[in-house]
């Protein structure tokens, strides 16, 4: 669990740095770096799922509770909501395909 928490902390820091990079590039050039923005969207959405799953696991049964007032309620909500994050705004599969083809110039399947 300690290792997983460390990985999540690294992921959050990495995502923050990606966001700063995207914002600074946009400010400098006036154009959003779309490849990096897509990478951040994909990475952030999947990171949120991993963090939410860890939080729910830490809280055990309480982590799955949906009743109002439950301590871990927000983690249960976060886990359910994080599924939508990998669909809305383009699914993770589509993001990966676009990054690979338009971003890295790899051929389509
Ligand atoms: C909570 C939520 C909020 C939303 N909010 C908005 C909104 O505000 N405005 C708006 O316009 N839309 C919104 N959407 C719609 C969202 O953008 C689409 O659901 C999303 O782009 C996926 O499209 P789809 O549902 O048609 O899935 P599909 O394109 O039918 O995909 C279904 C599955 O097939 C996979 N798939 C499809 N094509 C490929 C491929 N070429 N290669 C590999 N895998 C593939 C997908 O990854 C997915 O797993 C929202 C969706 C959700 C879940």
TrEMBL record:
Name the Gene3D superfamilies on file.
Butyryl-CoA Dehydrogenase, subunit A, domain 3
Keyword Mitochondrion: yes or no? no
Keywords tagged on the record: Flavoprotein, Oxidoreductase
Q: Does the keyword Signal apply?
A: no
InterPro entries named among the record's database cross-references = AcylCo_DH-like_C, AcylCo_DH/oxidase_C, Mycobact_Acyl-CoA_DH
Residue ranges occupied by any Acyl-CoA dehydrogenase/oxidase C-terminal domain in the UniProt entry: 1-102
What is the protein's name according to its record?
Acyl-CoA dehydrogenase family protein
